[in-house]
UniProtKB/TrEMBL annotation:
Domain of life: Eukaryota
Protein name as annotated: Uncharacterized protein
Length: 82
């Protein structure tokens, strides 16, 4: 019985981690309460314009010499590509 409860708790922790890591980008409004907007510009998701969660850097040959980094939240990118 004890091992069954431990297994359930482990699965619960794993599910909580998945929910946390696979969520949408963060709302930038609450971060702007304590930070300057210019400090956050390099963290903005190109799709939803919020703070990127599990940021993915996009690179393509067309924009290689642009000198700008394009970030997208992992979940936003998955939804966009569907």
């Amino acid at each position: 019985m004890l091992s069954l409860n431990m297994e359930r708790e482990e699965k619960k922790v794993e599910n909580e981690k998945e929910i946390f890591f696979s969520s949408d980008c963060y709302n930038k409004d609450w971060i702007l309460l304590t930070n300057n907007e210019q400090k956050l510009n390099h963290l903005i998701c190109c799709i939803c314009k919020q703070i990127a969660n599990n940021a993915v850097e996009l690179q393509c040959d067309e924009h290689q010499n642009d000198g700008k980094v394009y970030l997208v939240g992992e979940e936003c990118l998955q939804v966009y590509l569907k």
